[in-house]
Structure formats: C-alpha cells, structure tokens
Amino acid sequence: MSTTVRSARTAVPQASAGSSWRQLPARQPATFTRPATSNRPGASNPPATPSRQRISPQRISRQGTSRRKGPARLTRRGRLVLLVLLVLLMFAAVSFGRSASSEASSEAARPATRELIVQPGQSLWQIAQHVAPGVDPREMVLRIRDLNDLDSSLVVPGQPLVVPVFV
Question: What is the mean pLDDT for each group of 10 consecutive residues in the chain (167 residues)?
C-alpha cells in the first residue's frame, strides 16, 4: 500500500516497493521579475517578464497564449448583440428601400400643377369646384391641402396655392 504525501498544491502518491506509482515533483508557479522603473512622469513601465522557469500547459492556456482550434463560441450576450445588429441592418435596408421607392413613385405619379392666387371672397371649396368641376370637391380640397401643406381649409385673399391641373 502506498502513502500519500501532501504538498502545497496537490496530493501526490508516494512510491512504495511493489507499486507502479512514480513520484512527481511539486509544481511551482512562475515568478516574474520587474526591471527598475523610472519615476519620471510619462515614462512607461515595461511589463513584467517571466523568469526562466518551466510553465505548465494549463498555465499557458490560462494566459491566453495558446490558440483553440475549432469554431468560435458566442456567449449569450454576444448572440444578443449580433441579433440586435442584424435587426438594425435590416431596418436600415427597408427604410432606405422605402425612401428610394417613394421618391421615384412620387415624382412619376405627381400630377401636373399650376399656381393660383386666392381672390377676395373665395374659399377652398369654391377653388376645388373651379379647378375640377367633375370631381368630388371633398377629394379636391384634400389634394389642394396636401399639395400646399395646409393644416386647415382656411385661405386668405392674395395667398398663392398650388392646384392640380385636369384636362
């Protein structure tokens, strides 16, 4: 039967006469030496350099110097950030497509217009009936308001209005 010797880091089985265990040396952490630094402001202190001791593979992987081979792993936060970026990219593409198509369609579908000066005693309703006699005046009032960015149907004598032209 073998006895166990406890070191500072791990329990290592002790070799006995008839066992197949071999004694492993205790691991010691790598020590770092720091060169003398300057007290001048703005002088950079160089990073600590390791001394010439053997470093275990586990310590190397913890320091990040070894490269993992295989696919990249995304954390939950990384996936969330990626999802938000994709949604924003899709939103920007749709917005850009809508603005480009609306500009093209608004230029092509815009009817011919002319400018008309409001005379004393005229209302927007009368102007709509005068411009398009065969069309419903309510629709024409809405078109004139849209073309001129009017908030209400109130017009003032001498006010220029853009009205659609019907042939």
Answer: 52 56 68 61 58 60 59 89 96 86 60 88 92 90 91 90 84
User: Which runs of consecutive H residues, i.e. helices, occur in 29-75?
Assistant: 57-63
Tokens 């166990």 correspond to what residue?
4
Q: Give the DSSP letter string of 16-41.
A: -TT----PPPPP-PPPEE------ST
CB 128 within 8 A of CB 146: no
Phi/psi of residue 3, nearest 5 degrees: -105, 155
Helical (H) or strand (E) element with 12: strand 11-13
Helix (DSSP H) and strand (DSSP E) numbers for the chain? 4, 6
Q: What is the pLDDT of residue 165?
A: 85
Residue entry with tokens 């032209």:
165
